[in-house]
């Protein structure tokens, strides 16, 4: 058994789910087949939205909702996939040096990303693992709500990565594995950071995780015993493998441009993201950096990057290659939308200060102060980052009216879920307010759409003996 968190995290219901899948897999592959099972949780981000891809800290928690994969080795160098949800059809693909993607939005691209990530990682280390990259039949069953801002995609990618590695006898240290999986998800074309993967791998029961980047570091923060998390789904799809990806990637470009402009003005070298600017100034403060950016560039820049290239005194084509990439996973900017450099940077820099304060408030048990920071985070995401929606705003207001100390969108936004922090005794009031003020007026059955979630353990792998 390999556990990346404090314990293996398997509960009796998850073991039963794995057992059902294992029986099906043995019927396909043979009663004496070696079978490994992996559980990987989703995550809820308490605060620190859209900061991880700028190399700045976040404060998520793994949750007690998981994706499970059971896998058996195949003699052929191929991956055979089946999903317990009939909405996701079976897939099969060969293991090769460069695995071509399925069309955008296909669920199996996250499994391809996992396999490609392991191939690339061991290739970069001299191919030491190549002989151990064995074919597999994988059965998948996910209980992390899809496209709801709870990182079902990373739960699937982490589970597939660990299953693929386990069959080949490959192991990595937790931080190295988290960094590898974060890189691998760029296969699907989303320029994300490493929060989701680190939370899924290194979650700890009853703790949030203060995660820092470059290098990746994780510090567990004990959740106060009287704190509770209510997570509610807006039923507004936030699929980063689909249409939301364009807006998400646009924010990455805007933040990267802000970093380059600050570096140019401050005469800093080697800067690519806002975290590089922050790390170059030990005494940095968000208002100071925002003021510098305001004087260095207009708040909006042309989407063809001509304005930015002029400010940075670089060739536009070279800047475009750096920021946008190329090919199928290259970023496409809407030519009708200017780049909102100032507002995006203002959110990321002030959000970073909020994350640092929030970790201290949570550790000290100061829930009212933590709630105020969550509320300020949502206002910044709505006003400066433009990733909230009318539904999310209504849900946040309903949760606060029901007694939540703080509430905010969680995940990338553009739909998905909110997270509300309240005292454990107030969860019923918060849920009742969400039902009354949000779900009922829209004619949505709230059952299964909102729940009290708990901080859970990170991913782990076990072997299932034949019975």
Distance between the termini: 18 Å
H/E order of the elements?
Answer: EHEEEEHEHHHEEEHHHEHHEHHHEEHEE
Which overall shape is indicated by the principal axes computed on the Cα atoms?
globular
Strand order of the largest sheet: 1-15-2-3-6-4-5
Helices and strands: which structural class? alpha+beta
Mean pLDDT figure = 93
What does this 3D model show about the protein?
The two termini are about 20 Å apart. β4 and β5 form a beta hairpin. The strands form four sheets. This protein has a seven-stranded mixed beta sheet with strand order 1-15-2-3-6-4-5, sandwiched between helices. Strands 12-13-9-14 form a four-stranded antiparallel beta sheet. The chain is of the alpha+beta class. The protein is about 40% helix and about 20% strand. It has a domain of about 230 residues: Ribosomal Protein S5, domain 2 (2-Layer Sandwich). It is built from 14 helices and 15 strands.
Q: What is this structure, in a nutshell?
A:
With 467 residues, the chain is an alpha+beta fold. 41% of the residues lie in helices and 20% in strands. The two termini are 18 Å apart.
Key attributes of the depicted protein:
globular, alpha+beta, 467 residues, 4-stranded antiparallel β-sheet, Ribosomal Protein S5, domain 2, single chain
Write the layout of secondary structure elements.
Blueprint: E1 2-3, H1 12-29, E2 35-47, E3 59-74, E4 78-83, E5 91-94, H2 109-124, E6 135-142, H3 152-167, H4 174-184, H5 195-202, E7 207-212, E8 217-222, E9 227-233, H6 244-266, H7 274-280, H8 286-296, E10 300-301, H9 306-312, H10 316-324, E11 339-340, H11 341-363, H12 367-383, H13 390-401, E12 406-410, E13 417-423, H14 427-439, E14 450-453, E15 460-464
Helix pairs in contact: 2-3, 2-4, 3-5, 4-5, 6-7, 6-8, 6-11, 8-11, 11-12, 13-14
């Amino acid at each position: 058994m390999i556990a990346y968190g404090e314990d293996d995290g398997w509960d009796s219901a998850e073991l039963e789910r794995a057992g059902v899948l294992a029986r099906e897999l043995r019927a396909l592959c043979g009663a004496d087949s070696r079978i490994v099972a992996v559980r990987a949780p989703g995550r809820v981000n308490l605060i620190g939205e859209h900061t991880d891809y700028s190399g700045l800290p976040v404060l998520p928690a793994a949750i007690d909702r998981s994706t499970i994969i059971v896998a058996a080795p195949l003699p052929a160098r191929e991956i055979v996939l089946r999903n317990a949800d009939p909405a996701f059809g079976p897939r099969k693909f060969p293991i090769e040096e460069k695995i071509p993607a399925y069309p955008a939005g296909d669920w199996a691209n996250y499994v391809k990303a996992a396999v490609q990530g392991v191939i690339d990682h061991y290739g970069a280390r001299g191919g030491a693992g190549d002989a151990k990259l064995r074919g597999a039949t994988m059965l998948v069953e996910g209980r992390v709500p899809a496209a709801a801002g709870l990182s079902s995609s990373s739960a699937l990618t982490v589970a597939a990565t660990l299953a693929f590695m386990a069959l080949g006898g490959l192991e990595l240290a937790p931080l190295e594995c988290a960094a590898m999986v974060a890189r691998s998800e760029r296969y699907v074309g989303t320029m994300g950071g490493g929060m989701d993967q680190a939370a899924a791998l290194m979650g700890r029961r009853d703790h949030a995780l203060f995660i820092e980047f470059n290098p990746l570091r994780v510090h567990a923060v004990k959740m106060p015993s009287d704190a509770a998390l209510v997570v509610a789904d807006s039923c507004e799809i936030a699929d980063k493998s689909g249409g939301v990806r364009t807006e998400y990637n646009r924010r990455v470009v805007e933040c990267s441009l802000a970093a380059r402009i600050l570096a140019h003005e401050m005469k800093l070298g080697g800067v690519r993201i806002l975290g590089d600017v922050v790390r170059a100034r030990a005494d940095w403060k968000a208002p100071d950096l925002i003021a510098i950016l305001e004087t260095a560039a207009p708040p909006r820049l042309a989407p063809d990057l001509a304005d930015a290239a002029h400010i940075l005194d670089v060739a536009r084509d070279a800047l475009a290659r750096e920021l946008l990439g190329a090919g199928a996973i290259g970023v496409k900017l809407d030519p009708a939308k200017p780049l909102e450099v100032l507002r995006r940077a203002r959110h990321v820099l002030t959000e970073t200060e909020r994350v640092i304060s929030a970790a201290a408030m949570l550790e000290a048990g100061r829930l009212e102060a933590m709630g105020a920071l969550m509320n300020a985070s949502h206002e910044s995401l709505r006003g400066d980052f433009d990733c909230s929606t009318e539904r999310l705003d209504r849900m946040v207001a309903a949760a606060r009216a029901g007694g939540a100390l703080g509430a905010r969108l969680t995940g990338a936004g553009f739909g998905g879920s909110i997270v509300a922090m309240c005292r454990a005794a107030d969860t019923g009031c918060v849920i009742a307010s969400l039902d009354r003020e949000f779900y009922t007026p829209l004619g949505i059955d709230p059952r299964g759409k909102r729940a009290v979630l708990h901080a859970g353990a990170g991913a782990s792998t076990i072997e299932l003996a034949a019975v």
